[in-house]
Amino acid sequence: MLLWIDADSCPRAARDLVCKTGKRLGLPVRFVANHPIPGTDGLPFEMVLTEASADAADNYIVENSEPGDLVVTRDIPLAKRLVDRSIPVINDRGVVYTERNINERLSMRNLMLDLYKNGIAPDRTGTYGKKELNEFANALDREVQRLAREARAAARSATHEAARDSTGGGTYIPPGP
After folding, report:
1. DSSP string of the chain, one letter each residue
2. What per-residue confidence (pLDDT) applies to 51?
3. Residues of the chain whose pLDDT is less than 70?
4. Which phi and psi angles does 71 have, rounded to 5°?
5. Counting C-beta atoms within 10 Å of the first and last residue's C-beta, which end of the chain has fewer, N or C?
6. Is the C-alpha dihedral spanning 42, 43, 49, 55 positive or negative?
7. Given CA atoms 76, 82, 83, 88 in this order, what sign does their dihedral have?
8. How much is the pTM?
9. Which residues contact 95 (CB under 8 A, 6 or more apart)?
10. What angle separates helix 12-25 from helix 130-166, to the nearest 10 degrees?
11. pLDDT tens-place string over residues 19-43
12. Mean pLDDT over each residue of the chain, to the nearest integer
């Protein structure tokens, strides 16, 4: 499991929390952005700097992340691309994006963007404080634990399958009449 951060807009407190979680659990953390991220001195992570074009960091994450990894992003179109590839995604406020909710979230985002472009300023997202960080911490912990359980179950299943195959323990089909 790899913890990915779409680092362009991720709050520092959330980045710090992901790095601490990765360090505590021995999980690699990878920041991806198209510019250096300030305030990251001393944090245990790998930084991937992409070209400075639009969506370069998003494209890198989509092309290099895998099911079983976890991605942190505020970018709903990026989250949609990842969910479509069965890659778990949470935002920095603790929202877990799933197949059930991503299309609604994307539609709402697109509506708000259209309103903004037409001069109707919708309400802005509030500040990022202790409540939001706590909700993110809870969601991060739940998702990391869920992915760890799934990885252990898959490893056990593969081990049992390999043991059965090596002993010839396949399905018995009796000879015909």
Report:
1. --EEEETTS--HHHHHHHHHHHHHHT--EEEEESSPPSS-TT---EEEE--SSTTHHHHHHHHH--BTBEEE-S-HHHHHHHHHTT--EE-TTSPEE-TTTHHHHHHHHHHHHHHHHTT--PPPP----HHHHHHHHHHHHHHHHHHHHHHHHHHHHHHHHHHHHHTT---------
2. 94
3. 122-125, 160, 162-177
4. -115, 135
5. C
6. negative
7. negative
8. 0.82
9. 105, 139
10. 30
11. 999 999 999 999 999 998 877 777 7
12. 87
> Looking at domain 3-166, which of 1.10.238, 1.20.5, 3.90.1720, 3.40.50 is its CATH number?
3.40.50
Residue tagged 């949609």 (tokens): 80
Q: Which residue has the tokens 């709903």?
A: 76
